[in-house]
């Protein structure tokens, strides 16, 4: 790969067991300026290094010590910055293609454990019954609490057909669950859809990958062939942890007016201050043409609902935020995760890299999503009684050392008896199976269809302080330029 991958842009929420999150190959260029180094601290580092080499109980290789020093320095910044060793970097590059060897689990961190965001359909994880919000506490019998998420995921990776045993804590079970899985090649199809009833279509994007935009165009075109008189579309981004930025821009552009701003970024260096528009140069591969040209023209005006929940993060929040700002779609569900930062991958050697948080991203109206998320226009929980598994999930703002929101104060949570509330939610969860998105029992989807038909929607009353609804006018259409001036 060499210098071709010297700088890679990345937007991600969790990582996938077997692959890291997706890449944006049109990178934010980053020039490293020579800055004066603190000589006193460098001298202190040298002294500690020498002490370990000469006095530690057993010999330690120089390379290992320096790798761990870099790893510790980067990991201390925020939950999404990380040092990528040879294996991690290779898997990161491969992951954007939507196929990898692993277990098929999208994961995050909670209380020092690996938390399952979502198992990938038809993967070893889904077939073994692993569920969203499961906590992985042991890998092959070894406790993993205290490991970084990258280190924990490394332990879950391996060769095809190799076995791994996971110990899982599930809030609906009194005892740990032990499952043995066989790693395999996972081919993830990030888009699926169907006619849920005559005149109404459902499109689900589970993750933004390189093939996502083409796959969505094919799916929408097929649905219009089935029913040319479509009257409404539900775009389902629940539990979508993010992925490649061009995919998010392309999906937004499919439904927005031509050339409007979709998302902007702002960071410390000049090249991180950018605005991305609904133009093919921002979402299509060079020399390939415009994949959106194949869409039926009616897609620009079809009434829309976007479904989100706490598992909707990063690239999915870009799409929801853009469609909300332009009032192109009604956002229904629960507040999103709040992962509004951009990670850039800087290649250090041929085999290693640094994944570094370099910018925050903003909706067309200038709202910062980081640690706050997208507030739905209509708050609807997963179940008719206003509860569900979503209520048990953590958000970006719950992570230790999370990057702050630089434009608005993070919402305060109402004072509640957390223990009693969790007990109540666990008891409720015991009575119901995990939700299958798009099924006949999907309560949020039913409410989305009701909204498209002009029927009443069962809105969930807020129990905590939240964001104000979006009442500002949509931003003016911008046809020129590609950079914001800040």
TrEMBL record:
Region feature (Disordered): 465-486
Record keywords: Hydrolase, Protease, Serine protease
Keyword Protease: yes
PROSITE patterns in alphabetical order: PDZ
Signal peptide: none
Domain PDZ, residue spans: 89-157
Protein family: Belongs to the peptidase S41A family.
Protein name: S41 family peptidase
UniProt organism field: Undibacterium flavidum
